[in-house]
Amino acid sequence: MPVMKILKKNLAGEVTWQYDGVELQREENSITVEAFFNRDDTPFQEIVLKRNDRFVETFYTDKWYNIFEIYDRDDGALKGWYCNITKPTVIEDGHVSYVDLALDLWVSANGRRTVLDEDELDELGLDDLTKQKVYDSLQELDQYFESKNPPS
Length: 152
Description:
- It contains two helices and eleven strands, in the order E-E-E-E-E-E-E-E-E-E-E-H-H.
- Helices cover 17% and strands 51% of the residues.
- The strands form two sheets. Strands 1-2-3-6-7-8-10 form a seven-stranded mixed barrel. The protein has a two-stranded antiparallel sheet with strand order 4-5.
- The chain has a single domain (3-146), classed as Beta Barrel (FomD barrel-like fold).
- The model has no long low-confidence stretch (mean pLDDT 95).
- By secondary structure, the protein is an alpha+beta fold.
- The radius of gyration is 15 Å and the shape is globular.
């Protein structure tokens, strides 16, 4: 399976984080990769993100978000879904890149949804059209999780 370099970028197009993932599935408008959390154990919401937790990450070229399904490194249990609101992903040979738009949605394994980083979104100074895309995407994600049918 091909190894992909995942590139998270800011609005200026600068890479702010990068890591490797293994391609699991490729569709016309998406790619799903497997990656492992590469930071020290970090308390987050009601869980702890642990080094080597398994992330199954789906990136879309036609949607303004990505979805990370997170599994515990020790027992494989689903911890939840971390959804980044982003500009549509660019998939190229060996690379997956996205521009992060700050706003995030956390969905715990029990289905509880929490919107994160609204203050950071305000600091970006986005134009009205882009802000509308951000909130439309958040609403779309909310509907997917409300229906208990996360996008595939």
